[in-house]
Design brief:
The complex is a heterodimer of chains A (518) and B (427). Chain A has 518 residues and is of the alpha/beta class. Chain A has helices at 12-22, 40-46, 69-84, 95-100, 104-110, 129-144, 172-185, 200-204, 217-231, 243-257, 261-266, 271-277, 295-308, 324-333, 344-354, 363-372, 397-409, 415-423, 471-477, 482-498, 506-516; strands at residues 2-4, 26-31, 55-57, 88-93, 117-119, 159-163, 189-194, 211-214, 288-293, 312-318, 339-340, 358-361, 376-378, 468-469, 503-504. In chain A, the strands form 4 sheets. A 5-stranded parallel β-sheet of chain A has the order 11-10-9-12-13, sandwiched between helices. A 4-stranded parallel β-sheet of chain A has the order 3-2-4-5, with helices on both faces. Classes of the chains: A alpha/beta (518), B alpha/beta (427). Chain B: It comes from Roseateles toxinivorans.
Chain lengths: 518, 427
């Protein structure tokens, strides 16, 4: 038993629903008790879908447990087929139905429906949502993709499939549009996008492509490896998040398509690269950032933060255990230890200990950051309704890089604003506790009687205090602009500790400053 | 002494046939009740023993509330727990111990059963009594089931309150009747009712559940209880088993419903109708005034209810009698004929009542009826809007204060708003 207040991922059958809902002409019959229909509203409310998810629930109740749950399942499946006439069906059990041990696959087979019926084995007590999505997509591909009888003719326009986008995926809708446009720009044709918007008939012609573009390994890695093994289609490895990764992605794709990689890459344009170079962004240098999310987005975000925005990555983690190794490798590059956990209290503790100035994470980290008074931007699912925006806002490709720049820098004080606050520090309407003007609305005129020796909120409670501060040294410390004060305090304390100084005086403060400025 | 409510035998829908349906149900399970119950009982903690699905459900339903160090959590069963029952009990002890160390302010802990825990027959009542022994007097541990196989949405509150009834203290008072208001109400509504009771001169009254588990109301044979919510079948039965007697009444929705409910409260403790009337008249008149504006907009409009909370019948009665709406179908997950007798009598004859659900067939009926407003859950609301229907999502009717005189206008407003919005956007 695991005590849980919040879960990053739903159960695996929700992953299966994400695939079924993303596709057309597929229907999912889920053996489940009354109440499991709650998952419908993730799609109708959070993603604001205008249609119901194509899922029929058997809705068994306590009085059914005596023996006719199997009949209930068969009736529900038959009726769903007659009503919706899908091209293919998925059948499976939710966590409770897994315990009552009806066999959805066998029961559905006995109905002898004239369409492919794919049984899903989703172990609800071991696996989670993303695994369920990956497994479902893999089973669909394995069943429906037709192996061509003769090899495809060479020549003609190179073609690829785009694999991975699902329903309830973070910015999947716009990522697909952005990447499709990019691929078409360099001379590729997109054969099938799946599962988002694909029908079973579309899956049947996956083999008509030369290779696969894997956008989200969490959902598509398994299916793509099967396609590599069985149809000889190579798959892309680069995730095109950020300018550099997008360029690398273009090269990789061009190579797979037999196009000139250099010619393809010259088209590359993104405003974010210039924005990051502009002098206003100087203040972003070395900003401490903590990154958490699914493995794909967390790894990509850390790379963009460090290499394209000049932040310092002070924490990197993911709830995707399936990709823990990749996250650990990435974390090693920034000299931090990866946090692999699905316990948000653990994440909260890690953020507190790392004392970042910006948090990039999921909906949960947004709330943790709010509680700790830290700026934050969302980079990964799970997300709430506001992160399924009406406007175009991909994460991938060059427009994606622009979106990342805006949405990550926005919660921070912009350079000029920070500079002004440094200059007019203590001014009654322009003080360090004022939220950025674009976030907190009007600054509340706060009396400037600054509470005297109080630890800076930027360093976080976990920073142990090794030596006491003399009052005048504390006062001197407050003269240092607040956005570097946390660092100054940490450095001074570390210095005092290393020199075994019991009380930090003004002398110690400036000794430390000199020591660290070498 | 129920002469205050003129009910004639055979009137309204009292003897109307009810369409009983079975099939796919688009409803919440009883676990959802935790979301408003934990707000009401401020020193209680709700620990669901279930699967990741249960945790996911509560977090989806609770929205952002989950972050304020909420007083609910899920002990997620894993493979090891499914292997052997003895082990699961030990695991539960470990989780509860850790939880109570973390939250020393908790006085009442509910172990809430779910579908998985019911199906594997994990004995939560035994666990509750064992843990109670261990942690009393600091913490009392109780259990109830909020599973989908046994409870629908608001029935979770019924199961929770019914579990609490046996631990209510015995009232020492022997003569004059005491009034107990049963069903979680918003604090603001509770305070309004208290003021009206005081104005009536009603001295001995209490609310159940109480805001603190250390101040539970006492009950005994002189207790008269009045239901504030229509979904409390088991709680009523448990109260009756302890000698308390139910006071029949329509539910306090709208000016008329609240008047009848107040009259029933007064009559139960021997107050005259005139005394009650005098105390409530100003509030009743305010409510009627507030409703007038909405009546203009809703008069003659038709409405269709999908089943959700068991509030459907009282709401339909309010909308038809006080606002002039036409009822097409009124669906309810469960129809307690005895508790809803007064409501049934007030419903217009010929209303189609349905109990249970086969959602696809009900959607077909809804499309054929083409109602002006559809009351339904969030899973159906946007898809129906996309088909051109105006919807009112039903869960809001459970989370918003709607009972009593001062809320009558707000309640009507919940139904006029989607219509107004549709007009505005079409213009």
């Amino acid at each position: 038993m695991q005590l849980t207040l919040w879960t990053y991922e739903g159960p695996p059958h929700v992953g299966a629903m994400r695939i079924a809902t993303a596709m057309r002409e597929v229907h999912y019959v889920l053996h489940a008790p009354q109440g499991d229909t709650y998952a419908d509203l993730l799609f109708t409310m959070i993603e604001r879908q205008a249609k119901r998810p194509p899922v029929t629930y058997t809705t068994f109740q306590a009085r059914d447990l005596g023996g006719d749950t199997a009949d209930l399942f068969k009736n529900a499946t038959r009726e769903a087929f007659e009503r919706f006439r899908p091209q293919a069906m998925l059948v499976g059990a939710s966590c409770t139905a897994e315990l009552i041990q009806d066999d959805p696959g066998g029961l559905a087979q006995a109905l002898a429906l004239p369409i492919p019926v794919i049984p899903l084995e989703l172990p609800a007590y071991q696996r989670k949502e993303n695994w369920g999505a990956a497994e479902t997509f893999y089973q669909l591909v394995r069943t429906l993709a037709v192996k061509p009888t003769q090899p495809r003719e060479k020549g003609g326009q190179p073609r690829c499939n785009i694999l991975g986008p699902t329903s309830l995926g973070f910015r999947h809708r716009d990522d697909v549009r952005e990447i499709r446009q990019l691929l078409e720009q360099i001379g590729l044709a997109v054969n099938v996008v799946a599962p988002l918007g694909a029908s079973p008939q579309d899956l049947a012609r996956l083999a008509d492509a030369d290779f696969n573009v894997v956008l989200y390994p969490e959902t598509a890695h398994q299916a793509a490896s099967w396609l590599t093994r069985n149809l000889g289609q190579p798959a892309t490895k680069t995730i095109p998040i950020g300018v550099a990764a997008t360029r690398a992605f273009v090269r990789e794709v061009a190579q797979l398509a037999g196009l000139d990689p250099d010619a393809a890459a010259t088209e590359a344009q993104a405003r974010s690269a210039w924005y990051a170079k502009s002098v206003d962004s100087n203040y972003l240098t070395g900003k401490r950032v903590f990154v958490f999310g699914d493995a794909t987005h967390a790894i990509a975000a850390a790379r963009v933060a460090a290499r394209e925005l000049g932040f310092k990555v002070v924490g990197l983690g993911s709830y995707s255990r399936e990709f823990a190794r990749d996250v650990r490798e990435a974390a090693a590059q920034y000299g931090v230890e990866a946090l692999i956990s699905d316990d948000y209290l653990e994440v909260e503790a890690a953020i507190t200990a790392a004392g970042p100035e910006l948090v990039l994470g999921t909906q949960m980290e947004r709330h943790i950051a709010k509680r700790l008074g830290l700026p934050c931007a969302v980079i990964s699912a799970p997300v709430h309704v506001q992160d399924f925006p009406a406007r175009y806002s991909p994460q991938m490709g060059f427009e994606g890089a622009n979106v990342l720049f805006d949405s990550w820098v926005h919660p921070l004080m912009m350079g000029l604003e920070e500079h002004l606050i440094g200059m007019f520090r203590g001014d009654f309407e322009f003080h360090e506790d004022a939220a950025p003007s674009h976030l907190g609305g009007a600054a509340k005129p706060v009396p400037i009687a600054l509470p005297a020796p109080e630890p800076d909120k930027q360093e976080g409670p976990a920073a142990a205090i090794p030596a006491a501060w003399a009052p005048d040294a504390e006062k001197e410390l407050r003269k240092i602009p607040f956005f570097v004060r946390g660092k100054a305090r940490r450095n001074t304390e570390a210095y005092a500790l290393s020199k075994a100084v019991p009380v930090i005086t003004i002398e110690t403060l400036y000794d430390a400053k000199a020591h660290f400025s070498r | 002494m129920s002469a205050v409510i003129p009910i004639h035998a055979g009137s309204g829908c009292s003897d109307a046939p009810v369409l009983k349906e079975r099939g796919q149900r688009e409803v919440f399970c009883g676990l959802t009740g935790i979301i408003w119950l934990h707000r009401k009982m401020q020193d209680a903690f709700f620990l669901v023993v279930g699967s990741r699905t249960c945790a996911h459900l509560i977090q989806s339903a609770a929205g952002v509330m989950i972050f304020a160090e909420p007083r609910f959590a899920t002990a997620i069963l894993d493979e090891r727990d499914l292997a052997g029952l003895a082990d699961a009990q030990d695991e539960l002890d470990r989780v509860v111990k850790r939880l109570l160390e973390r939250r020393p302010d908790i006085r009442l802990l509910f172990l809430v059963g779910s579908c998985p825990s019911e199906v594997i027959k994990l004995d939560l009542s035994r666990a509750a009594s064992r843990l109670s022994q261990q942690f009393m007097p600091q913490v009392r541990v109780l259990n109830y089931s909020g599973s989908g196989i046994e409870t629908t949405f608001t029935q979770g509150e019924d199961a929770c309150l019914a579990a609490l009834v046996p631990v209510l203290p015995v009232s020492m008072q022997q003569q004059a009747p005491e009034l107990l208001i049963v069903g979680a109400l918003a604090d603001v509504v509770e305070d309004q009712f208290s003021r009206l009771f005081n104005a009536m001169g009603l001295k001995q009254f209490a609310f159940f559940p109480s805001r603190s588990s250390t101040a539970l109301p006492a009950i005994g044979p002189q207790t008269r209880f009045l239901l504030a919510q229509p979904f409390l079948g088991d709680t009523a039965k448990a109260l009756e088993a302890r000698g308390a007697r139910r006071v029949a009444s329509p539910f306090p929705l709208g000016a008329e419903g609240t008047t009848a409910w107040m009259q029933a409260a007064g009559a139960a403790v021997g107050l005259s109708a005139a005394t009650v009337d005098q105390a409530i008249t100003p509030a009743r008149q305010r409510a009627e005034l507030a409703l007038a504006a909405h009546r203009e907009q809703l008069q003659g409009k038709s409405i269709f209810f999908f089943p959700d909370s068991q509030l459907e019948l009282p709401l339909a009665r309010f909308l038809s009698r006080e606002l002039g709406m036409t009822l097409t179908e009124v669906g309810t997950p469960y129809l307690h004929r005895q508790h809803l007798a007064e409501e049934l009598a007030w419903l217009p004859a010929g209303t189609l009542l349905s109990e249970g659900q086969d959602v696809e067939k009900q959607l077909d009926r809804c499309r054929a009826a083409r109602p002006d407003v559809v009351v339904c859950g969030l899973g159906l609301a946007n898809p129906l809007e996309a088909e051109g229907f105006t919807t009112k999502w039903s869960i809001e009717l459970v989370f918003t204060p709607i009972q009593g005189f001062e809320q009558a206008g707000d309640l009507a407003g919940l139904f006029t708003r989607p219509l107004t919005r549709r007009q505005l956007l079409a213009a």
